[in-house]
DNA sequence: GCGGCATGTAGACGCTGTCAACTTAAAGCG
DNA sequence: CGCTTTAAGTTGACAGCGTCTACATGCCGC
């Protein structure tokens, strides 16, 4: 019996287990109503055990949102590294990766931006702003290449983020159906913004 | 199967009263936890009475979201009518009105786009798509004036909607603070898109 | 004037988030 | 090495929620 000497307490490291269980529950087909007691049940502990690690439900949700931001930033950074050098390619690649992340974790994405109680607090956390910083540096790189207009980079980055976030939300809510919005709506929308950014 | 809403019945026309009460509750300072029983309490009826008019909580929320879309479309149409004729002015005016609506009814706006249970169904309702149609016709008018590039109007409209919706969401979540995003971020973002749309 | 049916009420059920009191076992101290 | 402190987990309770069923009420068309 190998004991975990790194985790010096009672049963196991419940905090991590609870967090992982909760994250996994979000990945399931939507509609599962997310309940603290169900998390505890699946983690195999009593219904009040999570309270030893999270002040309340909102605290758990906030932490989950932050994990989501970490993952999103990681995915973006990683994906863009493999993209061609020119700005336009990076722009489209990042946008695709972003929307793909949201489509594969819709509940998580909604939690991150949905404005549930604790989530707003999460947005002020540095971990949540890494994704924005990523956009800023992408813009600035484009400016150095002479591909992006010389305007305040954070304003341009805001434009990108808003556009992609908006598209993502509309998509998640099922609004971007071809019969309503035409074919290639996403591509067209991204192109429109891109041309507004370009020098 | 005919609903008789205006005709006098038992107490009053509860459906409307419940709906109004619920809408009013959303306008209050955020944080009020929205509960069916509380709505009934404020409407002065028993806790189960609303079930005679709404199948469940989601149905009420859906109806509320639809009312929100009606109001939003009305506000946009009305505001833009008073704006100068040129496309850019209308674009900025509409954007400002849109964001103003959201800022003055944050909870309602979040309900409309938040993806709560019944809300997704609401998006497929024609009433919810009027706002999009409004954007489309604005774009087409701009194209007729030769101010907007000749591309599929619904794609361009999608770009507008996504951008403004994205900005609105970021704003509501408190992300557009000058120290993070720079000054005039909203204006800069809108300008970037506008230039991508223009011919 | 009467009976049906839409409208509203009362009460119950199982579930939830949260708290307080209790138990357990690892850690720290002499 | 034993004793105490105390963090980690359990149990049981409470109020409040959404929703269902059974019952009461009174407006309608006949």
Assign an overall shape of chain A: elongated
Multimeric status of the protein:
homodimer
Instruction: Fill in the CATH topology of the largest domain in chain A.
Output: Tetracycline Repressor, domain 2
Please tell me how large the radius of gyration of chain A is: 20 Å
Number of helices of chain A: 10
Structural class of chain A: mainly alpha
Sheet with the most strands, sense and barrel status of chain A: none
Spans where pLDDT lies below 50 across 5 or more residues of chain A = 1-8
CATH class wording of the largest domain in chain A: Mainly Alpha
Q: From the coordinates shown, what is the CATH architecture of the largest domain in chain A?
A: Orthogonal Bundle
Strand content of chain A: under 5%
Strand tally of chain A is 0
SSE string of chain A: HHHHHHHHHH
Count of all domains of chain A:
2
Largest interface: A-B, 51 and 51 residues
Report helical residue fraction of chain A: 55-70%
User: How far apart, in Å, are the first and last alpha carbons of chain A?
Assistant: 64 Å
CATH superfamily of the largest domain in chain A: Tetracycline Repressor, domain 2
* Mean pLDDT reading of chain A: 91
Explain what you see.
Two copies of one chain form a homodimer. The relative contact order of chain A is 0.10. By secondary structure, chain A is an all-alpha fold. Chain A has two domains: 1-54, Arc Repressor Mutant, subunit A; 57-197, Tetracycline Repressor, domain 2. Chain A is elongated, with a radius of gyration of 20 Å. The longest helix of chain A has 25 residues, at 57-81. The first copy, chain A, starts with 13 loop residues before the first helix and ends with a helix. The first copy, chain A, contains ten helices and no strands. Helix content of chain A is 67%, strand content 0%. Chain A has helices at 14-27, 36-43, 57-81, 87-104, 106-113, 119-123, 126-144, 153-172, 178-181, 185-197. Chains A and B meet through helix 6, helix 8 and helix 10 of A and helix 6, helix 8 and helix 10 of B.
